[in-house]
Amino acid sequence: MAGGQERILRGRIRSVQATKKITRAMELIAASRIVKAQQRVAAAVPYSEKITEVVKHLSDGGAVSQSPFLAGRSDVKTTCYVAITADRGLCGGYNSGVLRATEGRSPQGRRGGQELHDRSGRPKGRGLPPIPRIQHQPALRGFLRQPNHHRCGGNRTLRR
Fold this sequence. Notes:
Blueprint: H1 3-60, E1 78-83, H2 92-111, E2 115-120, H3 123-126, E3 135-136
Parallel strand pairs: 1-2, 2-3
Main location: membrane
Subcellular location: Membrane
Pfam family, one: ATP-synt
């Protein structure tokens, strides 16, 4: 083998080995994040169960059927889609699925003559091309790291 080709092959081998190390480090980081996410989900289970219990209790008592927020409406003029996309790591497949689902629902509104709105919660969702005939609203930046009422615009009123 000529000296030049051997040097090129050694360089490629070093490059592949370096990529392997980086990939391994990314796997370890992802594994630790999964464990933390699973712990947060487990911590939210009692809250979810209590909410389910409260709503079931209200519906059994007939209070839910009287709520204007839960009553069906035939005169819907505006529909808002909140696409929550990820902005870290290798999240392309997840983001594509979320936005494909959003696009899949949007024709329903167009056929019904509804005005459609979209609010993407993450930078990668905002960076994608807009869905035709849907008004894009300003996104909620950094909201999902530590969500609370005030950070998501809880003091603003929604207009119909």
